[in-house]
Structure formats: C-alpha cells, structure tokens
Amino acid sequence: MTTGKINVSVENIFPLIKKFLYSDHEIFLRELVSNATDATLKLKHLTNIGEAKVEYGNPIIEIKIDKENKRIHIIDQGIGMTADEVEKYINQVAFSGAEEFLEKYKDSAKDSGIIGHFGLGFYSAFMVANKVEIITKSFKDEPAVHWTCDGSPEFTLVPHSKTERGTEIILNIAEDSLEFLEDYKIRELLTKYNKFMPVPIKFGTRTETIPVPEGAAEDVKPETKEVDNIINNPNPAWTKQPSDLTDEDYKNFYRELYPMNFEDPLFNIHLNVDYPFNLTGILYFPKLSSDLQIQKDKIQLYQNQVFVTDNVEGIVPEFLMMLKGVVDSPDIPLNVSRSYLQADGNVKKISNYITRKVSDKLKSLFNENREDFEKKWNDIKIVLEYGMLSEPKFYEKAGDFVLYPTTDEKYFTLSELKEAIAPIQTDKNGKLVVLYASNKDAQHSYIDIAKAKGYQVLLLDSPIVSHLIQKLEADNENLVFSRVDADHIDKLIQKEENQISKLSDEEKEKLKVSIEAVVPKENYTVQMEALDSTSAPFIITQPEFMRRMKEMSATGGGGMFGMGNFPDMYNLVVNTNSELASTILHAENEESKASLVKQALDLAKLSQGLLKGEELTAFVKRSFESLS
Question: Does the keyword Coiled coil apply (predicted)?
Fold first, then answer.
C-alpha cells in the first residue's frame, strides 16, 4: 500500500475548491462526466492511430446512485490509469492529463474532442463528497489500483482486483449534499450539462416495447424489455455538416433544445468555421414580439459538446442575444471553473464572425425569396433594427435586406424607398421627407390625409425607432423622417405654393385670443394656419423633435436634459380657412365661442386618442345633449 501527501502548494486545497474555485456545487457532475468522456476519447484516438492495441468497442459512461450507502458512482470504459499515472495526475493538483495528452499528440489529436484544460475538474468532487475513491485499470497491461482520499491532503493507493479497462469514481456524499442522491436531481444535472456529450451516458434503465411482427395473431401482445437509459444525444445537429441536414432535422433539434417551446423557428443559421478559430453551432430566429427586453439565457455555450453557460455575452453580439441555439468552440478561453469568459482577442473575432454570418444569411434569404422574407419581417425586425444601432459591421450590410414597410403593407429597402418617394415627397428645400406612423389606428386620420396627396407613409412601430431614424438621418444627406402627426401635412412637406387666408391678420389675432382663453397653455401652443378649406378645422400635432427626444430618453440614450420627464407638448393648428374658424370668430358672445372651441378641441383630441377619462365622459354627454 502506498500512502503519501497530495502535492499542493497550500496546506489544504479542498476548502478552497469548495468555497471559491467553483461557484456552483452542482457542476461536480459535469466535471467528472467530462473527465470520463476525455478518458474514452483518448482511448479512441490511441486505437485509431494504432498506439493502443485494444478493441475500442462501443464504450459508455454510467452514473449509478447507491442511496443506501450514500454513494454516487461514475464509471467509464476509457483509457484508465496506472499507479504511476494516478500519482502524477491525481496527486499533483493542476497538472492536467488532458493538457499533456494534447501536447504530446498535438498534431494528430487536434480534432479528438478532448475537453480538459486545467486538471482541477476532478477535485470538484470534494464539493459534495467527504471521501472520494478511484478504482482504475489502464488499457496497458498493468494492475488496477484503488485511490482513496477523505478531503485532507492524505491519500492511500492500493492494488485492486478490477480486470476491465476504465475508471470508476466513487463519491461518498457529505451530509450537506444529500440532495444529489435523488434520481431526479442527477437526471436534471445530466440533462443540463451533459445532454450532448460525445459518449453515450447511461443513467438507469427504461422499459422498451418490442413491436408485434406483421402477420402475427391478433391475440399476440407486444413484449417489453429493459434497455439502457441513455440520457444524451452524442451526435447533435451542430456537429454535422449542413449538407447532411434537412429543414426537418433543424426543427427537430430546436425542439430537442427547447422542449417547452411549441412554435417552430422562422429560420436557422448554421455556424461552421475552423480557421482562424474553431467554432460550430446553430442559431435560430424565433418569433419575436416588438419588445426591447433582451431575452438572454436562450443561446447555450458548449465546449466540445460540454455545456458551459447560457450567458454568452461577449461571444454573441448583443443584438443577437434574442436568438436561440447553440455555440460550441474549444477556442473560447474560460477560467478554471469553465463558468466565465476571459477577455481575449479570439472572442471578438468570434463575435465578428457571427455578425457576418448572420448578415450573409439574411441577405441570402432576402434575395432567394423576398416574398417569404417580407412575411417574416415583423417577427425579426426588432433584432435587425437593434443590430443596426449597436453593431457597426452589421449596419454596413443592413442596407441589402432591412425593410421599411408602409401602412399599405408594401416593403421597401431604403434605396428603393428613396427612389419611390423622391418625385413627390421632396420639399421646396430639396429635402426628401419620409413620412411614418407608429400606430396605424391611432394616427389613421393623419395617414389618410397624407395618402390623399399621394404620399407613402411607413409603419415604424418598434420601441427603438426614434434612435434608428436619428442614425439614418445622420448617415443620409437631405433625408428627413417626420411622423405623420407631427404637423399639418402641408407643413411637413412644404411646397412653393402658399394658401391665402380668408381672415385678415387682425381677425386671426382676435380668433387666437378666443381660442387661447379655453385651451390649456401648459399643454398646447395655438398656431393659426391658412390651410385648404376642406382640411380639418382643428388639428393636434406633436412636434417631431420634442417627441423624438422624449422617446429616445424613455428607451435609453439620446434624451438630453432629462426630456423624458417633460410633459407632453402639442400644437393646436387652427385652419383659418375653415367654416368653423369664421363661426367661432363671429359667435354672438364669449360663452358661445368657448363652447365651440371646447367641442372642436375635444374632437381633435379624440382623433389623436388623447380624450380620456372624465373629459371623454363629459364630451359624450355634451354630444348627446346637442342631439336632443
């Protein structure tokens, strides 16, 4: 029997591991299954190159719970260890066997899928166990050994009678970790961390029904048999070539990733690059609402098919965090617990690659089937618009596929839109005015007036539209966006001709005084305008600049001087050529004037959705009374 002290640089590393090295105790199972996977893949590699003269076969990793004795067993049929190797790899903490293996076979083992990097994964076992045992038999013709350690630097190493190749880790579970002896808990952890490990993982058995052969008698009942319960899919879709997968394969994998999501994704993007870094994965565009809340924790990060985290910030560009799927790369640097990303040039390269790949896919979808792309636009626009604002490289490419829909459900790219509206929506100063609405129903009357003049009106209803149009205006000379209710249409797109007012300047001033006596000054600025006599007598508009700054402030950034807290300000545009203007002016007394102004103002507010609560109740009552 060998006894000795584990070679560590502190008196007792185990409390340190338990408290600080790993943030979450449950990852012990991930680490130990990863080690078992490494041991199996190493053997596969050595048999492939003829260095291990053994039969590789169809090895599995098995997890067993012995509740009575408070033990968990992790058993593999991999490369195993000799006594010397146990001394070297287990007793010298942080001297990683996987690292040494990769160095020794770096040319031939590059694609072997070996996971380990730090050599500390095994010691995560002491987070949940007060004693850990290793029974291991090397593929080499050497006797098996049994290593035991109780969480102190002391260990024992004795011969063992094991005859089959591989390693068994036995965890004697501590009193504060007894939850890990429950089947449901282990199943939950295996599903979370090891669902796509490259070696089959057995956890218990399940009953399988054997189909009745064709032509059998009617009274023949199907038989059942107990089979290994393999909890993982060793060959997930992202490890395959895109040419080997159908649309249905991609959808099935999406359901495998998100079993509680009942809607199919809109489309997918398969990532597959091996230079200058190694990265595979599949990203899915799910149906999205116009909600600016970034739905993080949807994309899963793997390293050689081992789940690492569902926080992929930094690797996946922020605007794509609303997508779902998998990214797998052995080149993403992780700290010792594999739980957090470290700052690294590779990460930025990967982020740029993903941005480019998504851009190329969107352009391809747009070019191949524009009609289908237009149908999906409302479900993907929030991602693309956010990408234009947050990712310069994406913005550069966005002109090829980002769409601007009209209220009539026509779709234009920006260049198409400029060409379509230039002949009619260019104002007297040579500026091209893009009219838009944010709510088709609430701004219906304004849209109607604009369309009557032959103008196109876009429907831009994303919460970040104010930020987006600000950027588009800055990058496109003589291009101006105006919401269709920002002013009277003739003021939004000013032409050379001017309407002549029926009222004299003196009459206009007298009318303005009468109206201002009724209209609340803190919310409305009264403007007297000579408009077409058929236009509405009173029109409420909200100045584009103030409204846009308030919206930008509400969604973060752009709102200067706390504009988000300013009260809403409106213009009340009075059409001096309307019959109502003359009627108010010539009313017999101030009370009659005030009554007309109040009713006209309420009608204008009603058309803007601004008449609510008590004011709306009073208006309805007053209107019914005028009918009796």
Answer: yes
